[in-house]
Amino acid sequence: MRSVELLLDADGDAAVRRAWAALMAADLPSAGRHSGATNAPHITLAVCPGEAAGGVADAARLAGLAATLPRPVELSGLVLFGGGDRRVLACHVVVDEAMLRLQRDVVARLGGADGVLAQTAPGAWTPHVTLARRMPLARLATALEVCGPVDLRVEAVAMRVWDSVAKRVTVVA
To answer: Distance between terminal CA atoms of the chain?
Structure first.
């Protein structure tokens, strides 16, 4: 599987990492528990399913789109994804036409909506920055209190492709 991601500026990255740390300090699930060098706060633009490695090729297809960066990003409020008794907790990203256009362009260069997971197809995509996966609903009130209100104006400063098969990040130029 490969994902195309936008990375946040230093202020945005630090704010999200503070939320990750606060969740961990409260003994809650947190994306900060992933200690890999490639783990960074990000906005996923598209996810390509499959077992074939291809991050470098994807980055080549996306060349030029990173020229739209940096671009302003507003993180406002929290959002939950999933079902059952555990959810994904994330910061909601307020979209504008430029962000929607960038996401559509990324998907188009990856082969269109048939080439990406349904939840990242244009019209279905909900941009967000993940704070925690598998958050128990029974602990959600604590998580919301720990994270506090979210209202940040930051920038997306870089685009990358994460290739989970090759375990490699490729920066899109």
So the answer is: 21
